[in-house]
Amino acid sequence: MGDGSMDRAKGNIKEAAGDLTDDKDLQREGKVDQASGSVKDKVGDAADKVKDALRRD
Question: Per the database record, which ranges form the CsbD-like domain (predicted)?
Answer without folding.
Answer: 3-52
